[in-house]
Amino acid sequence: MILHKCKRLVLLSSKNPSFFYKPHFSFSFSLIFFSSSTENQATNDLAVTDFLLHKHQFSPETASQVASVLPRVKNLQKSDSILLFLKESGFSRTQLEKVVKSRPGVLSASLDNTIKPKIKIFQDLGFPANDIAEIISNDPVVLYRSADNRVTPSLSVLKSLLGSSAEVAKVLKISGWFLKNDLEKTMVPNIKFMKSCGVGMEQIIKHIYNFPRFLLNSLNNMEKFVKTVDKMGASRSSKMFIYAVRVVSSMSDENWELKLELFRDLGFSEDEILVMFRKAPQVFAVSARKLKKVMEVLLATGKYDISCIVNCPASFICSVEKKLEPRMQVLMILDSRNLIEKWPSLATIIKMSDIKFFEKFVNPFLNEVGEVYMSNGANRNSQDRIKEEL
Questions:
Q1: What is the pLDDT along the chain (390 residues), one digit of tens a residue?
Q2: Which InterPro entries has this protein been placed in (predicted)?
Q3: Do 377 and 354 touch, CB atoms closer than 8 A?
């Protein structure tokens, strides 16, 4: 059909050269090439879908999705070599699908210049095939990073800090951000700065695992975070210091001020806010909704007030549904029936394990509170024990 239209255009132009200058020519000419492009893309999509579906057993959904976003693939044989190499390197079909879905362009990448060098770096450092496959499939961007300027130096820094390839692999499975940043310009100076603030390496290493992006801030920002923490009165000798810096780093200046304002609105004085921050800075990362809910549950008992919460800010971190509400319900029922002489301190209730709470406040009064404790989200182990007793 397209060939027929082209022949007709040539014939018309030979009889009337001014034809090409008429408005209808622009529309006809665009239509021809639009139709051609659409047909070519459709052919390409079908070829890619068939290739992934039948040659490499991708799911129909993944094959179709990749084909729809992938530019024209000129050499499916090249794509086949890439996928076969990754399979031989230990990638499962599921991991291959993750890589291709995340980075469809990998099918057109250079096997020798892009893919193989990155795999070899991990292999030379002693990473098992399954670890390499998991790390890369979790974040395929590493395949596009410079081997000499990013991947190798980052792995070297991590290994010097963590001690072994196994520990490095554990961290990279948690987050691939360490291979996206220049660690010599971020993590290394930040660690040196944290140590100068009195933070021990044990705590620093713990934060590498638990909060991967924390030490990847710029040094200038890290210094700014520390100034904020110092202003809040947190002691650099406290084990809570690095947690305080991490919490501040997780918020913009505007959101930090909003969080302080929220505590004021909840009824806390400036001094009380400072006390809570020094005791449990993690509380300042808790959502506004949860902070309000915890306040509501505790104050509704009539036994705990703001001063109790200030003395035990960790109560804001507890699960409302699984810990606070069930325990408060039990204590209120026991109190209404004069089965307890004195309410335990909030700190005691928060620190008490589920089993300890069960043994002291539930087991002796199963008929009164057993069912309530279960229906209000008690810990599964406690529920099982209640069922046995009943």
A1: 444 444 444 344 444 544 444 444 444 434 333 344 444 544 445 688 888 998 999 999 999 899 888 766 778 899 999 999 999 999 999 999 999 999 999 999 999 999 999 999 999 999 999 999 999 999 999 999 999 999 999 999 999 999 999 999 999 999 999 999 999 999 999 999 999 999 999 999 999 999 999 999 999 999 999 999 999 999 999 999 999 999 999 999 999 999 999 999 999 999 999 999 999 999 999 999 999 999 999 999 999 999 999 999 999 999 999 999 999 999 999 999 999 889 999 999 999 999 999 899 888 888 777 676 666 555 555 555 444 544
A2: MTERF, MTERF_sf
A3: no
Q: Give the Cβ contact number of residue 4 at 10 Å.
A: 8
Q: Which residue has the tokens 């129909």?
A: 60
The CA distance from 268 to 265, in Å, is: 7
State how far the Cα of 211 lies from the Cα of 136, in Å rounded to an integer.
20
The CB-side HSE value for 283 (13 A sphere, CA atoms) comes to: 26
Q: Give how far the C-alpha of residue 294 lies from the chain's centroid of Cα atoms, to the nearest Å.
A: 25
How many other C-beta atoms lie within 10 A of the C-beta of residue 22?
Answer: 12
Residues 318 and 294: beta-carbon distance below 8 Å: yes
Rounded CA separation 245/81 (Å): 48
Q: Answer positive or negative: Cα dihedral of 183, 184, 186, 187.
A: positive
Residues 236, 197 contacting (CB under 8 angstroms): yes
Q: What is the DSSP string of 232-277?
A: TT--TTSTTHHHHHHHHHTS-HHHHHHHHHHHHHTT--HHHHHHHH
